[in-house]
Task: structure prediction
Amino acid sequence: MLCTVGIQDQVPKWMYNRQGGGWLTAEYSMLPNAGNPRKPRDGRTGRPVDGRTLEIQRLIGRALRCAVDLKQLPEVTMWVDCDVLQADGGTRTTSINGAIVALYDALLYMEEQKRLPKWPMRGLVSAISVGLKDDAPLVDLDYHEDSAAEADLNVICSSDGKLIEVQGAAEKAPFTVERFHEMVAAGQRSCESVDKLQRQALGI
Ligand code: UDP
Result:
């Protein structure tokens, strides 16, 4: 994944009459040969953006907005771009994991420029995919594991281990709420490990 953050000195139109603050939004895209078979570039097939892309970028945006107090931003839009260079399952969770590091970096830059009245980040965000294989949770699925999973969740957590979003469904047959709880718990444990790696990357 390539995760970058760009700062635009403007907020969306629907925010014009609000009292200060900024906005954060995300875009996600896969390079044509990130997966196999080749995926046509967005906008080249008659439909501007496919449903999967829309769903993923909204998930990324929601997760990141949870980590930032938007009221503490100046009147800017933070554009988070997540581009898949090579796909092997879990690209939406990896997007979130990389994007929050890029966002922290971008905010540090804004702080250096004295553009932040107050540090706006509430904490980091980490995410992991969790599948059900042979009726047991399996985390961080690669493409083959993902395709064979009996159920598939994406667990997104804040640094303090609380849930931000759980996205998921049964793939082949319905599964029990007990398994669901086990999968969420496995996801939370993995998110804790991801959080440590993110802190290591940021030196915090
Ligand atoms: N995939 C692909 N091309 C596509 C959609 C998916 O190659 O157009 C592969 C890719 O490896 C991806 C995996 O299928 O990581 C699982 O896709 P899914 O929609 O479950 O999202 P992800 O797990 O990447 O968040």
